[in-house]
Amino acid sequence: MDDEQAAELPAHAGLEGRITAVIAPGMAELGYELVRVAVLGRERPTVQVMADRADGAPILVADCEAISQAISPVLDVADLIPGAWTLEVSSPGIDRPLTRVKDWNRFAGHLARAEMAIPLDGRRRISGVVLGADAAHARMRLDDGTELALPLADIRRAKLLLTDALIAATAQAAKPN
């Protein structure tokens, strides 16, 4: 995987980062992009994988099944998760997480909320209009007009806020040509 491909992956650390490294190449070969990996629970953890279609078409149940069938054996062989675990594959949904630079750029103009691992200007939670991102920072405009550059490495989680404008834009993007 080259640097450009790595930049299009969600920035995960620890177990989620190892899972990302193992499953992302196979997903890409099948025409899917990894949006997020989350491991939830302790006794029997659930590995949640969110994916997009690389061609921009809406992701369907059949796509989730294909991804699941492709990555489940890869995760079994990699043996990253001790004991029994469950795999869940889904679309990111309309109010999706913003995990990649391309997400921040694709959804510029829409409202989002970010939670920072390290406070920025004394704030851990930041809401505003997405302005885009580069390799180091995501940019947002707050209600008061202030523009902030959020260090991507310090964003714990970020997601779009469900608005009429987002619903309309998503519906428009889903219409066949």
* Strand/helix succession: HHEEHEHEEEEEH
Named CATH architecture of the largest domain: 2-Layer Sandwich
Portion of residues within helices: 25-40%
- Structure summary, number of beta strands: 8
Spatial extent as radius of gyration: 17 Å
Largest sheet: 5 strands, antiparallel
- Which of globular, elongated, flat, extended, rod-shaped describes the shape? globular
Q: What share of residues are in beta strands?
A: 25-35%
Mean model confidence by pLDDT: 90
Q: Report low-confidence residues grouped into runs of 5 or more.
A: 1-6
CATH superfamily of the largest domain: RimP-like superfamily, N-terminal
Q: Alpha-carbon distance between the termini? A: 32 Å
Number of helices: 5
Secondary structural class: alpha+beta
Q: How many discrete domains? A: 2
CATH class category of the largest domain: Alpha Beta
Main-sheet strand order equals: 7-6-5-4-8
CATH names the topology of the largest domain as GMP Synthetase, Chain A, domain 3
Description of the molecule:
The chain is α+β, with helices and mostly antiparallel strands and 177 residues long. It folds into two domains: 88 residues, GMP Synthetase, Chain A, domain 3 (2-Layer Sandwich); 74 residues, SH3 type barrels. Helices cover 32% and strands 33% of the residues. It has a five-stranded antiparallel beta sheet with strand order 7-6-5-4-8. A three-stranded mixed beta sheet has the order 1-2-3, covered by helices on one side. It is globular and about 50 Å long. The two termini are 32 Å apart. The N terminus is likely disordered.
